[in-house]
Structures are given as structure tokens and as C-alpha cells.
TrEMBL record:
Domain Zinc-ribbon positions: 9-29
Membrane spanning residue stretches: 66-83, 95-119, 152-176
Keyword annotations from UniProtKB, A to Z: Membrane, Transmembrane, Transmembrane helix
Name by which UniProt lists this protein: Zinc-ribbon domain-containing protein
């Protein structure tokens, strides 16, 4: 009886051999629980929320989800979650698009929606890569790696918000300056 429980897929009941990573019938990943525990260390804040989202996406093999923070503030959300490449890229792109008026605004809304839908999946892949690296690190390097690349960066988030806000104010003031000179 025990043997049956140990070797049956928890999702569909298909039997599997010890050492199998995926269910041959439904694709369920057998090490999901352990994987989730490792990932939570890297997610840090709100780890339960993201862990649940990742689990849902994996079990049903979906790339889509919904994330309000990423929809409303895609660039800030990426920076906060330490995905700086995406974050600063988006910040620049969205800034440039503001000069394209209506088209730019529509594009910015489209970017927001795309991030609302795909943010959790992008973040899942990011965390998966970190966990993969974590597993091949020396024991004494693991904690350092989590602190450096895992969790959130509130300081960077505030700095970027203050920075972009200051730039916007400076642009307005400069506009007035030029206007008064004309
Ligand atoms: Zn299965």
C-alpha cells in the first residue's frame, strides 16, 4: 500500500519510477515542494503569494497569471524585485514612449497589461535561474547569494521613484524657463 502511495503521481495517480522528475502522463513535477522551499528563500517578501502563483502556473502549464503591482508599475515592480535589466529597460522605454503622445500612451498601457499578465512567469524564470545557481554554490556562498540576488530592494525602489519624479519636475521647470524666454 505504502509503495503505491510513494510512486503514484499526486495529481493524476499515474505510477512512476523512483528518480523520475516529471509525471509521464500529466507532466506534474515531483520535486515541486522542495523546489518551492528553495525558491521562497529567494523571493523573500510575499514569498507565499509568489510561491502559490508559481505552483499554479506549473501545475496547469500556464505562462499567464495576473499581478496588479506589475500592471500598474511595471518598471518599479521589476526594480523592487531586483530584475534591474528589465526594470531600467522599461523605465527608459516608457519614458521615451511618453513623447509619442497618443501612440505612446497606448503602448504604455499595453506594456502594463503585458506585464500584469506575464510578470509572475518572468519572475518565476528569474527565481528558477537563481535557485539553479544556488544549488551548485559552495555552502558558505549560499547565504551571500540569497542576500545579494534574492528578496526585494526597497532602497533602489525609493531612489528610482524619487529620481524619476525629480526628473519630471525638472522637465516642467525647464519648460517654463524656455517658455518665458520665448
Ligand atoms: Zn500525473
Amino acid at each position: 500500500m505504502n509503495e503505491y502511495i510513494d510512486t503514484a503521481c499526486p495529481k493524476c495517480g499515474e505510477l512512476y519510477l523512483p528518480g523520475d522528475l516529471f509525471c509521464s502522463k500529466c507532466g506534474y513535477e515531483f520535486n515541486l515542494v522542495e523546489k518551492n522551499e528553495n525558491e521562497k528563500q529567494y523571493i523573500g517578501k510575499n514569498s507565499q503569494y509568489y510561491s502559490n502563483k508559481f505552483f499554479e502556473m506549473r501545475v496547469v502549464h500556464k505562462d499567464t497569471s495576473w499581478n496588479w503591482a506589475a500592471f500598474l508599475f511595471p518598471a518599479y515592480w521589476c526594480i523592487y524585485r531586483k530584475m534591474y535589466f528589465y526594470g531600467f529597460g522599461l523605465l527608459l522605454l516608457q519614458y521615451v514612449l511618453k513623447f509619442a503622445f497618443l501612440f505612446g500612451n497606448i503602448m504604455n498601457v499595453a506594456i502594463g497589461i503585458a506585464f500584469g499578465v506575464y510578470a509572475n512567469h518572468i519572475y518565476m524564470q528569474h527565481v528558477e535561474q537563481l535557485v539553479d545557481k544556488h544549488q551548485v554554490l559552495e555552502e558558505d556562498q549560499k547565504k551571500k547569494h540569497i542576500n545579494q540576488y534574492g528578496g526585494v530592494n526597497l532602497v533602489a525602489l525609493i531612489a528610482v521613484i524619487v529620481g524619476t519624479f525629480s526628473l519630471a519636475v525638472a522637465a516642467v521647470l525647464l519648460g517654463f524657463e524656455i517658455y518665458s524666454l520665448c
